[in-house]
Design a protein that fits this description.
The structure is a single chain. The chain starts with a helix and ends in a 6-residue tail after the last strand. Helices cover about 10% and strands about 45% of the residues. The protein contains one helix and 17 strands. The chain is mostly beta strands and about 230 residues long. It folds into two domains: about 90 residues, Immunoglobulins (Immunoglobulin-like, Sandwich), CATH 2.60.40.10; about 90 residues, Immunoglobulin-like (Sandwich), CATH 2.60.40.
Length: about 230
């Protein structure tokens, strides 16, 4: 009788403790706790304007390797950095401005979640060293005809180095009234005027950074109109 009583107590104890152990068993793909995913960065240090690729390096156990294509990527501060896409085994990160952000990687249907801090430093200032002017001819030639109207030529400026922090330029033409400049930025159009026919002007492009400049002459010619 005593032996049966002991067995009964053990059976009852096992009945109450077994659900507890089952409930605490978090192994298996449904929770993600058995899947370990590593990335090529644990912390991403960047400068504004840079891009970096973050990707999966290892998946444990290896039979879950295909799960990397289902990863979801989010970032909590799009003013600091942005992600090129939100799903997949890798993502391209673009640093936008100085600051900090956090990338969170999750696996749908599981508890897997990992964060990757992103630290963006201000980009170093790169000064302009020179500027060149690109035109179809040198000197620049535009024509004016009373029937066909004006002829427009496109010219552009190249600022060096190509990664200079300030690429802005200012265009000017002198004397005034001989040609007109259209557009803005590093590419503009040159148009001859009726008053400028037979005359020469000078077009100058100057960089905002360092005031580097280059000039080129422009000649306004008059074309003879074809007789009908």
């Amino acid at each position: 009788m005593k032996k049966k009583y002991v067995l009964l107590v053990l059976a009852l104890a096992l009945a109450f403790t077994l659900p507890f152990f089952v409930a605490c068993d978090t192994s298996g793909t449904e929770t993600g706790n058995s899947i370990q995913i590593s990335f090529n960065y644990t912390t991403l240090n960047m400068q504004a304007g840079q891009t970096q690729s973050v990707f999966v390096t290892t998946v444990t156990p290896s039979e879950y390797m295909d799960y990397r294509d289902q990863l979801n990527w989010t970032i909590n501060n799009n003013a600091v950095a942005s992600l090129a896409r939100s799903v997949g085994r890798s993502v391209t990160v673009t640093a936008i401005a100085e600051g900090m952000a956090t990338i969170t990687v999750t696996l749908p249907g599981t508890d897997f979640s990992q964060t990757i801090p992103v630290i963006v430093a201000a980009a170093p200032f790169i000064a302009v060293t020179s500027v060149t002017m690109i035109s179809p001819t040198n000197p620049i030639q535009v024509a004016f005809t009373d029937v066909a109207g004006v002829q427009t030529v496109t010219i552009s400026a190249n600022v060096y180095p190509s990664n200079a922090s300030n690429q802005n330029v200012v265009w000017s033409a002198y004397p005034l009234g001989i040609v007109s400049l259209g557009g803005s930025g590093r590419t503009v159009t040159v148009t001859g005027t009726r008053e400028g026919v037979g005359q020469t002007a000078t077009i100058t492009v100057t960089t905002e950074c360092g005031s580097f400049s280059i000039s080129r002459q422009v000649i306004v010619a008059e074309l003879e109109d074809d007789e009908e």
